[in-house]
Amino acid sequence: MKGLGATGGAGLAYGAMSALGLAPSTAAPARTFQPLAAGDLIGKVKGSHSVVVLGGGPAGLCSAFELQKAGYKVTVLEARTRPGGRVWTARGGSEETDLSGETQKCTFSEGHFYNVGATRIPQSHITLDYCRELGVEIQGFGNQNANTFVNYQSDTSLSGQSVTYRAAKADTFGYMSELLKKATDQGALDQVLSREDKDALSEFLSDFGDLSDDGRYLGSSRRGYDSEPGAGLNFGTEKKPFAMQEVIRSGIGRNFSFDFGYDQAMMMFTPVGGMDRIYYAFQDRIGTDNIVFGAEVTSMKNVSEGVTVEYTAGGSKKSITADYAICTIPPHLVGRLQNNLPGDVLTALKAAKPSSSGKLGIEYSRRWWETEDRIYGGASNTDKDISQIMFPYDHYNSDRGVVVAYYSSGKRQEAFESLTHRQRLAKAIAEGSEIHGEKYTRDISSSFSGSWRRTKYSESAWANWAGSGGSHGGAATPEYEKLLEPVDKIYFAGDHLSNAIAWQHGALTSARDVVTHIHERVAQEA
Ligand SMILES: Cc1cc2nc3c(=O)[nH]c(=O)nc-3n(C[C@H](O)[C@H](O)[C@H](O)COP(=O)(O)OP(=O)(O)OC[C@H]3O[C@@H](n4cnc5c(N)ncnc54)[C@H](O)[C@@H]3O)c2cc1C
Fold this sequence. Notes:
The chain contains 14 helices and 27 strands. By secondary structure, the protein is an alpha/beta fold. The protein has three domains: 4-85 and 278-353 and 462-524, FAD/NAD(P)-binding domain, CATH 3.50.50.60; 89-147 and 265-275 and 356-454, Polyamine Oxidase, Chain A, domain 2, CATH 3.90.660; 164-253, de novo design (two linked rop proteins). The chain has a five-stranded parallel β-sheet with strand order 14-2-1-18-27, covered by helices on one side. A four-stranded mixed β-sheet has the order 10-9-22-23. α2 runs parallel beside α14 and α9 (343-350) packs across α13 (478-484). The structure holds flavin-adenine dinucleotide (FAD). Flavin-adenine dinucleotide (FAD) binds at residues 54-60, 77-80, 85-87, 117-121, 127, 295-297, 328-330, 333, 357, 452, 457-458, 461-462, 494-495, 502-507.
């Protein structure tokens, strides 16, 4: 044991909290993850060490992958017949029966798909590190596109009008700059800014807003052209700006801050061929012998020899006992298992409230968004129930593609949740055509939708912790802290136990934290 620590056995050291502020908790000290290695266990710690992992989503597969590196005997039990959990890519051949009993069969053309769950990865997330380690090819993902549209209701002439992001941004930034420059020049900021400060601010605003020499916003080529500039004497015709009051009152800038977010700022990435490529790569490395698909866990109990888990697979009841268990089943579903968990842990699990989100993909046999609207990736945004229309980031300039006709959450998703697929499609087309026009209704070859509240083995998009508004904001609830600690030999992991809820990164960091904890315990108990 001493040797393990002295040789710097991977994953055994407690360390400084991550620069991202992950998992600073009084209940669970931050553990610095170091990849485990064969030398950590073999020849140093007697006996074999087994771990049963409940759930083959990101947290489960990452746990299994990391533990195997040190020689743990790992068995993953996954209820679905595919890896990835809420990382679910719909492509031709995908089939799903939802909790309302409706079965959809996806008939997208060969090579075409969309991600019903996770779809993008920021540069800071360790998801990209696993792509590198597992050899999963990645490509850029457009989180903003100047050519996509905003379309919102208001009491202005811009109500219900589709405006390109580039026009909305040019006008909003232009008028804001004009107003702030005016206020500065009129002395409104004299209490806070020196003469030199004001000169520097003016210079910045002139450039930021593309202002005229006398400090006014009169329009800008940034908005785009009614007729494009071309050869010879074709100078093009710039689009005229909207009126200042209309721009301000219509709120066309309401979504500009989306990609200012730490997790949403460009560049963003995604695996070539669908997000689920990551989890098929995990599966290949873990080995299908060590993963039981179609294994629905029904019971999880601490027993004297470790943890006994019962499950059904292939119509029969089975059971497995291991030294430790890592439960990555979504928290609101764990209480349904037969268990001997203490009452306060069951109460804590109930505090993670399920949420609604869903998407619908339409395959078009013509890429009208490229040929007519000059849109290559990114999303149009609206205050209609569809919330946004996401354009494909793959197969550019080919003859067909899958558009995500809505990606909505919360109340707006509830408007789709109780509908049949056909009804969802009809509503999505009706709302989408108000944004992109009549062409939106034509050349549709197939469609497929997913609603996470109605999806078996998830029944939620992501966890909302009671009282924390969906994210911890630096303050953990007592229930959250409770689940960071093991119940004897049972550990909990998943994105709900991280500060990156609704991100794979959260599930992966949670898995690493638990793996580190188990490995440290094994070392200490040896
Ligand atoms: C709409 C949507 C959009 C998202 N967008 C992004 C994004 O763009 N980028 C990003 O990084 N993340 C995104 N996410 C989040 C990401 O999908 C999750 O953070 C991640 O899947 C969480 O992994 P997990 O292992 O904690 O849970 P899950 O993925 O839910 O895995 C849990 C596993 O447990 C299994 N299970 C459940 N019950 C049982 C049982 N009784 N027996 C056996 N197995 C069981 C499930 O089948 C599942 O495989 C999105 C999620 C959603 C829903």
